[in-house]
Structure formats: structure tokens, C-alpha cells
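Pair request: fold both.
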Amino acid sequence: MVYGYLSHTIPIVHNLTATMNFQEFTKVFTKQVDRLAYERHLDFAVGICKKLFFDYQSFSERYDFGSPDVLFDAINKVEQRQLLRIDPKELKTLLQRIYEITPDSEDFGNANYAINAAATVYETVEFLLDRDINHIYNIGTYLIDTIDSKVQSDEDLSAEEIDQHPLMIEAKSYLLQETK
């Protein structure tokens, strides 16, 4: 297991997160997301897209499937949203392209990380179109699900042990810090 997946966390948040169960974390995360401004929502979403992108890229290289360039271009479009004035039709086309390069779990046994990465970018583009805050909650959930899968792939753990796993604590700390 490689720790440090999310690179930086603030120790105070890290310590607080270590004492929270998943329901407590979800409650705090939701409240914090609710208070963010639109631009902060997008910055948060892009940050997670970038973190999960490499999972998609690895999957794509391993199985010779999909196109990391589509996700990369979508992330860049969202980042440059203020400069580009993107046409909603173009974003809808981009959503279709992301959908087409998202692996199906029935076709690939080990596609969870890549599916989550593509879904995160998809939800970010959808948020850019409709400003529905549920996309932001989902994006945080995709990160947690990815970490959960990585933790479970190494060990058979109970829900409590997963909550207390250093990588899960780091992920939850990251989410709380980025939504402060």
C-alpha cells in the first residue's frame, strides 16, 4: 500500500478525522460543501479530478481502453472556464465523449478506479452546466470509494477498520480541508 496518495493534509484536520466515523464525516463534509461558493466548488472538483486521473490513465494503458486525453481535455476546459466561455452544446458533447471512454464494470473486472475517475470528470462537467450541488457531493464520494477500494484490495477489513485506515483518514482529511 502506498500512503500519501493525496499528498498534503493538515494535521489538525487529520486528527479530527481520525476520531470520526463515516456518518459523522459525511455530515461535516456536506455542511462544508453547502457553504462553498460556486468557484470553490469547481476548484474542489478539479482537484479531485486531477488526483483520480492517474488511476484512469493506468487502467487505460493496462487494458488498452479509453482515452486519457478526453479526461485531460475536460479537466483543462473546466479549469479555463473563465477564459474560454464554453458553449453548453460543447459541454454536452464532451459529456458524451467521457461516457464513451468510461469502462463498464461488466467488461473489466478491475475497473473501479477508472470508472470513478471518469465519473468524477463527468460530474464536474455536469456541475459546470447545471450548478447542481449534488455533483459535488458525488465527486467527494468517488474519492472515498476509490480509497475504500484500494484499502480493501490490500486487506479484508471491517467498516470500522476502513474508517481508521491511514489512507482513509488522509482522504477524509483532504476532503474536509478542501471544503473549509
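--- second member of the pair ---
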Amino acid sequence: MKFKLRLGLAALLMSMFLFLSCDAFLGWLFEEEEDNNNNNNSNNNQPGNEINNENPDFQKTIDKILSDYYENNQLRGGVSLAITRNEKLVYAGAVGYADRSNTVKLTPQHTMRLASVSKPITSIAIAKLSDDGKLSLDDNVFGTNGILKNGLGMPTFNGTPVDVTVRQILEHKAGFKRDIWRSPGWNFVVDASTIAEPLEFAPGTITQYSNFAYNILGKVIEAVTEMPYEEYVREYVLKLCGITEMRVGANTSGTGEVEYINRNFNYNENNAPGPSGGWIASPIDLMKLMAHVDGFSNVPDILKSDTPRINVHSHGGALNFGTWTALHRRADGFTWTLLMNYRPSKEDQGSFVDWQEIPHISVFNKIRETIKEWPEGTDLSQF
């Protein structure tokens, strides 16, 4: 009799245990399904902010400015924005899509092709080599006594060979055309045939923007370091800043990279070279890089205090297939970057007053005018 009672009690307890366990499991299952449904129904036009800040009103204010900018200008892609103040991250948010066709929401962790915002990265690498005594900004680039020797010949002006210095290339004063490429696509070949194309002015006399000239700086870096350009930058610049994910774009989409909003986009024909326009980064990584070269005091710089920082602190960029970018370090302690995976054409510019300048100035200027009190921010080393 005692055995039967014990057996019955054990069966009862086992039944209760299974019921409670099953109920808890089903509750967890349906709760997770409900959360997933909520996520799937979220509004992709609302900014996703990655910073857990002590001031939610501050976050909402900037989120609203970014969202209004996105909606009012009828942008079809996504916009990501990061802001530092005194070298601490105070905002990182995004609105729109990383992949519109699959309704993937953009976040500040997504990476984009930087276009000409890549040029400050090349400039930083040249400054680092100058710091390390590997070159001087006043070194000649071509000729027997130049960094590249006679391998690429000598540039000419009015039929006469002329010297070109590293500094002149950095400052867009070397005389090269804006673009010299070979088909197909953005094939910026730096060889004897392209160097032989006559300069448009005597070096040092005029400032004229040149993508081609910055690709020559890539050759300079490789000649001095005996390393591939990207490898040197990643190892001796980005690694010192705690950055591991930045890279030069390839002919295919990289991990975490957005899709670009352009019906004619083709990776094989729109892969800009690294030194002038090919780097890929997230806005947060760009802020980490800038904090180490901005000359402010809270984060140690990787460059010496007296190192010339030519073309390092501010730049804009655009590629026709869809990238539109901006980077700016201000004297008042603010640095910001804005990245877009959609570049409006003049035909679909929406309400833009000046379609070329909107992403470079309007968003941050609106934020700066609106925000009166700024939070302390988060150390970039945490990202």
C-alpha cells in the first residue's frame, strides 16, 4: 500500500513538473515570437540609435532631425550619422535601409564605401611615414632622386620634365588632371602611360582637385614601406586606433556592407581605388580614426603634435553609383560623419535646394543649432 501511494505521489509530482515546464517553455516561445513580430513590423524610417545615453530627450531630438531630413528629401536609401564631442561618442544613429529590396534596416554598424573620404586616410598614412622618418613631404616623387625613381618616368609641363613633391600631391597642387583612367569602369592605372599625360599647370602654382594624384600617393606608400598600400594602412594606422573592420572595397560586397541604391550599379565597374576613393567603413570607425589624429587632448594621437595634417580633418565624397559621404572635424571639439548609400541625381533631388551640399552641412548645422546641452558621451574604446 505504501509503495502504491509513493508511486502515485511521484506520478503526480512528475505531471506537475512537466506541465509547469511546458507552460514556461510555451510562454517563452510565444513571447519570443511576439517580439520578432514587433521587430518585423518596425518602421524602417525611424532612426536606430546605438548609444545608451543618459539623456533620452537628446537622442530623440537628433533622431527626429535625421528622420525629417530623410523624409523631407525623399531619400530612397539610408543615412547614418555619428558625432563626437571632445573625442567621445555622443550620437550614432541611422535611418532608412541598408538593403531596401529586402527591407533591412540601416544601423551605424553597417559599412559603406567612402568615396573621396578615403583621401584623409591616405593623407594620415603619409603623415605617419613622415613622423617615422620614412619620407619628407618635400621629397620628389619621380625621377632618379625621387621616391618612385624612374620606374614611371617623369611628368611634363609644356613639354618639359618637372619635379613633383609629396606635399604638392597632398595639397592638390601637382598639376595632374582630376581623373585619368582606362576602361572598363574606374580603372585608375598609375603607370608610365598615365604619368606621361601632360600636366595642366606647373606644380605648386594652382590648386586643382585630382583623384588620380592621390592614387600616386598609394604608389609612394608602397615604395617606401615595401608593403601593399592597404596592408600598411591597416597595420600601422588603423590598428593603432583599435580599428579592425575598415578595408578597401573589392569587386563584391563585403561583410556588413550596404546595398547601393542605383539601378546601374555594378561592383566590377564601380570599384574605386583605395588611396583616392575605395575605403569601406562604418561611421563609428571613422570617428575612432579621427579621434586619434584630430589634435585634441582627450585621446592620444598617433601623429606627432607638430606633424602637418594636410587634407586630414575634413572631406566630402560621392560616387555615381550611390555613395554620398562627409567627414568634418570642427575647431569647437565636434567631429561628425554622415554616410549615405544613395546619391540623388539632379532629376530626383526632391526638395534639395543645393543637391551637392545637403549631406555635408545641413544635418549637423541643424543639430548644432537645436541642441543646447550636450551629454558627456561614451569612450570610443568601447566600440
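Observation on the second member. The first helix runs from residue 2 to 40.
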